[in-house]
Design a protein that fits this description.
single chain, elongated
Length: about 120
């Protein structure tokens, strides 16, 4: 490959339903490996939040942004899921709670085993 050759990268959109939520992921699909760029989660047509990978090469260091455009935090620390599936799980189960107290309770329960 010469310095001017670039690998062909196709951007694909994947959609699936999880826990009654529509998940849409934008994926770079080069020939050798897929890399999720970002995803969104909606419920009944309303945005729940989005997620993205801060380190796309390693597909690690995931972040969640709430529907208000703010990073998801617990005790003033960003919530950093260990994988894309963990980020989707937080968005489809934790952030779909009825009120902020229930969200906090679910979030604490979800990260408790990691402490």
């Amino acid at each position: 490959m010469t310095p001017h050759d670039t690998p062909e990268i196709e951007i694909v959109v994947r959609r699936f339903t999880d826990n009654g939520c529509q998940v849409t992921a934008v994926v770079a699909d080069p020939a050798d490996a897929q890399q999720t760029l970002y995803g969104t989660v909606t419920r009944n047509g309303t945005l729940v939040g989005s997620y993205y990978c801060a380190d796309r090469v390693r597909q690690s260091d995931w972040r969640i942004v709430t529907a208000l455009g703010l990073p998801l935090e617990l005790d003033r620390r960003p919530v950093t899921p260990v994988s894309e599936s963990a980020a989707v799980q937080v968005l489809t189960t934790v952030l779909t709670a009825r009120d902020s107290d229930e969200v906090e309770q679910r979030l604490r329960a979800a990260i408790r085993p990691l402490r």
